[in-house]
Amino acid sequence: MEIDRRPFKKLFPNLYREIVEKKMTAQIDGVRTSIEEGEAVAEKSRLEPSMPTPIDYLRRCEDDREALEVIDYLEKRNEITVEEATKLRNQVKEYGVRSFGSKKEWGYYSKKYLGDIDV
Known about the structure:
Layout: H1 5-11, H2 13-19, H3 35-43, H4 54-58, H5 64-76, H6 82-95, H7 108-114
Helix pairs in contact: 1-2, 5-6
């Protein structure tokens, strides 16, 4: 089924951008087998704020059970593919949620981007 792009883009601009322009993606760089490796990758994105990735959500989880719930939720909402969800679940089951990096506590982003001011 072929749909004319102009009306589709006008009616659904965000969906058009996600599907056609592929600007909204969740990239999973691979399995990290140590906390240090997870931290190193996480620190690469320190320079500017961006949309949270699945890894960012997982780093807020308290435990593996909660991480699996988050993965299920992201998969259900089609924010990650079945393949990505499977990889993430396998990593949680094999290495634990902390393999994605240390836990992001409340105020993480305000401290990261605003410094040590009270929010």
